């Protein structure tokens, strides 16, 4: 092996490549253990297949006994009235749980098997409620997505079903939902608040839902999310313990594989252990590095901050709106980055030349004034958006080049110092290396889900 391919880390007596080889071999051993555990779990849970789709015995199917005969009869009458007035078909299904399926997956399976609505018009609607899961969904056929879009289905869940379900008024929630669906198909008004369905084009903030709806349900975190977090936490802790204690590689592999195996056993999904293994192994070695390296502690701290922020965001807004919140968070982070670049550029331009700084600032003011004359802002916040964009973009492009060039002098000094230190480190490295060697409608996937 050539000398320049060998390097030693501080505090280690063996080449780093050998350490990397140990990490790889231990991770592969953990993968083998996870595969065998997955096969074992698959054999032991083969009988625990996903729940079958219930047989459709009518327009209202209640497998939990929640509705009495009078309540079920009134819902069937509503469904018949909807079919008589619009030819659209609605079906209601109440189940104890959707099993290993999410509410969306189970609703799609039911819709595909029951095929509500006409084959050509595809005008079926499924209202699904999973009592023990405290989840519900309105699944809409493609033919009705124009009059019953996802945002409207979500509003029906939020305003009609969820408040009544929290009071254990399941019949009232279903009755209100069918009324709202019927009114939407007819283009009428039936949602609490009096909106006309034809006027609803964009999502609106829901203000009449109590804030404890999400917090009582863990923010909508899925079972997979909890299992993944538990596996990551386990492996991180095991890695930190490995940083202060020494044991055989097979023990390390077993500890790495234990987290994904327990997670897959909790989820009753044998293949999940293989999917969770790689991030879990990464967390193990991150925990190991936290104990051994200061730089790793900084990385772990940033990683924990990001993960904690995402979990808090999901807990605050719920799973249904998590990705919107995540998008807002990324936009805020991007805006903060742009602002930081502008401030650094302005500071460096000021330090370089006060005259040039004032000249650039005058140019920015001129651009903003020109934009403001063409788009006169008023008392509304949105009217200031063009002016704000002009101010940010002009400062970014006017001050950032100045800041970048302004630091060239000091940068060259730092570069020379880095090159000298690099040459000295290369000399020490070389010396060290010399020492070391069908008939109905079909679901489009559209609709909305919710929890209570």
Molecular structure report:
By secondary structure, the protein is α/β, with parallel strands linked by helices. The protein folds into three domains: 125 residues, no CATH class; 150 residues, Diaminopimelate Epimerase, Chain A, domain 1 (Roll); 86 residues, no CATH class. Helix content is 63%, strand content 7%. It has 14 helices and five strands. A five-stranded mixed sheet has the order 1-2-3-4-5, with helices on both faces. α2 links the parallel β1 and β2. α1 packs parallel to α8, α2 runs parallel beside α5 and α7 packs parallel to α9. The chain is flat. The N and C termini lie far apart (64 Å). The N terminus is likely disordered.
Key attributes of the depicted protein:
452 residues, alpha/beta, Diaminopimelate Epimerase, Chain A, domain 1, 3 domains, 5-stranded mixed β-sheet, 14 helices
Name the CATH class of the largest domain. Answer: Alpha Beta
Counting copies of identical and different chains, the oligomeric state is: single chain
The stretches of 5 or more residues where confidence is low (pLDDT under 50) are 1-20, 194-219, 402-422, 424-437
Beta-strand portion reads 5-15%
What is the count of distinct domains? 3
Distance between the termini: 64 Å
């Amino acid at each position: 092996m050539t000398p320049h391919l060998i390097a030693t880390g501080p505090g280690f007596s063996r080449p780093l490549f050998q350490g990397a080889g140990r990490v790889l071999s231990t991770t592969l051993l953990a993968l083998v253990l996870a595969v065998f555990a997955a096969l074992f779990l698959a054999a032991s849970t083969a009988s625990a297949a996903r729940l079958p789709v219930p047989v459709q015995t009518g327009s209202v199917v209640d497998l939990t006994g929640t509705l009495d005969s009078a309540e079920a009869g009134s819902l069937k009458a509503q469904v018949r009235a909807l079919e008589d007035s619009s030819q659209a078909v609605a079906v209601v299904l109440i189940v104890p749980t959707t099993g290993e399926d999410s509410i969306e997956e189970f609703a799609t399976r039911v819709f595909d098997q029951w095929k509500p609505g006409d084959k050509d018009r595809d005008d079926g609607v499924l209202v699904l409620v999973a009592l023990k899961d405290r989840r519900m969904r309105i699944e809409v056929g493609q033919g009705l997505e124009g009059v019953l879009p996802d945002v409207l289905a979500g509003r029906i869940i939020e305003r009609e079903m969820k408040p009544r379900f929290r009071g254990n008024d399941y019949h009232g929630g279903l009755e209100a939902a069918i009324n709202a669906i019927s009114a939407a198909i007819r283009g009428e008004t039936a949602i609490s608040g009096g909106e006309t369905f034809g006027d609803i084009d964009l999502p609106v903030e829901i203000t009449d839902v109590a804030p404890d709806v999400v917090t009582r349900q863990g923010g909508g975190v899925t079972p997979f999310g909890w299992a993944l977090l538990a596996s990551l936490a386990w492996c991180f802790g095991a890695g930190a313990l490995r940083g202060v204690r020494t044991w055989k590689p097979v023990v390390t592999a077993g500890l790495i594989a234990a987290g994904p195996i327990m997670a897959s056993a909790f989820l009753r999904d044998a293949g999940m252990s293989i999917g969770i293994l790689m991030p879990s192994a990464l967390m193990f070695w991150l925990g190991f590095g936290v104990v051994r390296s200061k730089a790793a502690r900084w990385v772990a701290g940033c990683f924990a901050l990001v993960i904690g922020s995402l979990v808090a965001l999901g807990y605050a807004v719920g799973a249904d709106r998590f990705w919107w919140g995540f998008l807002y968070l990324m936009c805020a982070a991007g805006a903060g980055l742009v602002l930081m670049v502008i401030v650094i550029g302005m500071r460096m331009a000021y330090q370089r030349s006060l005259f040039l700084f004032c000249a650039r600032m005058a140019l920015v003011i001129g651009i903003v004034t020109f934009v403001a004359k063409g788009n006169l802002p008023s008392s509304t916040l949105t009217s200031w958006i063009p002016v704000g964009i002009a101010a940010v973009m002009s400062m970014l492009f006017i001050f950032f080049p100045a800041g970048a060039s302004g630091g060239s002098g000091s940068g060259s000094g730092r570069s020379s110092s880095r090159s000298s230190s690099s040459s000295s480190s290369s000399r020490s490295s070389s010396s060290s290396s010399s020492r070391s060697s069908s008939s109905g409608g079909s679901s489009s996937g559209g609709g909305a889900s919710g929890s209570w």
